[in-house]
Design goal:
Strand content: 25-35%
Largest sheet: 7 strands, mixed
Helix content: 10-25%
Radius of gyration: 22 Å
Mean pLDDT: 93
Shape: elongated
Structural class: alpha/beta
Number of strands: 15
CATH superfamily of the largest domain: Vaccinia Virus protein VP39
Low-confidence stretches: none
Distance between the termini: 53 Å
């Protein structure tokens, strides 16, 4: 039977209209204080996942194992993270599979790093670069909490001089001026390797595209934006939630190829319709 043990990270879902989620690490002798009373950790330790706990006020909470989504959404942060709605697509477009070697810059709070590390296990590797000391230290703590530090190699330094790695499977840039590091990214990737970047504004996106066109060595370029709208899960009055996560960034993906290779750019037909 799969049971919660001391030291485990768990998720408790309040079984009331608030549906609040409590993400915590079980520690003997501690208590979780909620809007509906407290729960002793000792009463949770040893209980099977999927069972219900009660506070001293009788409020029920559902005990669950946290997912990668939960770990990402609960990282401590001092800046905006890359959200799961982008992370899922990034993992697919960069072909993140067990055994992959992936370079990332910058680390930030470590949300994407955590997701990457879970998908390259057990024998893959994530090399993550971050220049800011406060971000570096925070990411280290978040990755320790996620239990993935053995998969991630954190490096605190500027990436202008390039990356240490060569022939990696994928590389992702989440930095303010990614167009400054296109050559460095290309040098680190294997031929046909997967490249991705996230920027918040269209002018940054234009700068990045222009540099890639000028430098050459890139194919299969895609630009996309991902929006997500949740619905209230009530059968008799199903409708969208009042708030949604709208724009959080533009994503660009490409494949690294040998420079000088001729690639026909996306064109337009005479009538102005884009070619397939």
């Amino acid at each position: 039977m799969n049971t919660a043990q001391a030291g485990d990270w768990i998720l408790l879902l309040a079984q009331d209209r608030s549906a609040k989620r409590f993400f915590l690490r079980l520690t003997a002798g501690q208590q979780l204080h909620t809007h509906r009373g407290f729960i002793r950790h000792d009463e949770v330790i040893g209980q099977p996942y999927g069972s219900f706990m009660k506070s001293q006020l009788g409020q029920r909470f559902l005990l669950l194992q946290p997912s990668t989504f939960d770990f990402v959404m609960h990282v401590k942060r001092i800046s905006q993270i890359i959200y799961p709605k982008e992370i899922g697509y990034i993992l697919m477009r960069l072909n993140i599979v067990p055994g992959a070697r992936v370079v990332e810059a910058g680390t930030g709070s470590g949300a994407l790093t955590l997701a990457l590390s879970r998908f390259v296990q057990p024998n893959g590797r994530v090399y993550s670069y971050e220049e800011r000391d406060d971000m570096f230290q925070l990411a280290r703590k978040n990755l320790d909490r996620g239990g993935v530090r053995d998969v991630v190699e954190l490096k605190q330094r500027d990436i202008r001089a390039g990356f240490d790695e060569r022939g990696v499977d994928a590389l992702f840039l989440d930095v303010r001026e990614p167009w400054l590091f296109i050559a460095q990214a290309h040098a680190a990737l294997k031929s046909g390797g997967f490249f991705g970047a996230l920027v918040p504004t269209t002018n940054q996106l234009s700068e990045l595209l222009q540099e890639m066109e000028t430098a050459g060595g890139w194919a299969d370029i895609e630009v996309t934006e991902i929006l997500m709208r949740k619905y209230k899960p009530v059968a008799e009055r199903l409708r969208p939630e009042d708030r949604m996560i709208g724009h959080t960034g533009y994503l660009l993906f490409a494949r690294a190829i040998e420079r000088g290779t001729m690639i026909e750019p996306p064109g337009e037909q005479a009538d102005g319709e884009a070619t397939e």
